[in-house]
Specification:
188 residues; mainly alpha; Ferritin; 6 helices; elongated
Length: 188
């Protein structure tokens, strides 16, 4: 009878040491409270205050959409085709911002406020019914500058307590700066 050789099983690899600064108990706790969605116990922001800031930004974006859309539909003339196209492009980008903000509010277990009855009261920017193209451009430039400053202050207020919201606001503010630059270029 042939002798069989049995190779002893290799010992199980040792568990990798947990890197410093990682709280495994907090990571395991994140598996609890599933109804809270992405908001874990480690969230450091003041969730209600952040939601309120985001709803103010949402109202501002909605007013900006309406202003740009009105300007898009009311500006006329062959010489204004470029301005008209810019207004539409900005309206669509502002809509994207509103969607991002509403989604973030939902992620934070809040409710996005689309109430038209209080929209202007909550918005940082103004609506505008100018009939002259340069007045429209000027109104949009003012609104973009207001939005930029609002986002800057929100970013500063949030600080490092909510990195996801902070990154979102920085991303939106960068586009608002492009919009302001575009409007400045259209001023005669």
């Amino acid at each position: 009878m042939a002798e069989s050789t049995v190779t002893p099983a290799s010992p199980a690899p040792a568990a990798a040491p947990v890197p410093p600064g990682i709280d495994t108990a907090a990571i395991r706790a994140a598996a609890q409270n599933l109804a809270d969605g992405p908001v874990t116990a480690g969230y450091k922001g003041d969730r209600e205050a952040v939601i309120k800031l985001l709803n103010g930004a949402l109202a501002t974006e909605l007013v900006c959409i309406l202003r740009y859309k009105r300007h898009y539909y009311t500006v006329s003339g062959r010489d204004n085709a470029g301005v008209k196209a810019e207004f539409l492009e900005h309206a669509m980008q502002e809509q994207e911002h509103a969607d991002w903000l509403a989604e973030r509010i939902i992620q934070l277990n809040g409710e996005p406020d689309f109430n038209p009855a209080t929209l202007l009261d909550r918005s940082h920017a103004e609506y505008d019914e100018s009939a002259e193209v340069q007045s429209m451009v000027r109104a949009n430039l003012i609104a973009e500058r207001v939005a930029i400053e609002s986002y800057r202050q929100m970013i500063e207020t949030i600080g490092d307590t909510d990195p996801t919201t902070r990154q979102l606001l920085i991303k939106i503010m960068a586009v608002e700066e492009e919009h302001a630059d575009d409007m400045r270029d259209l001023l005669e």
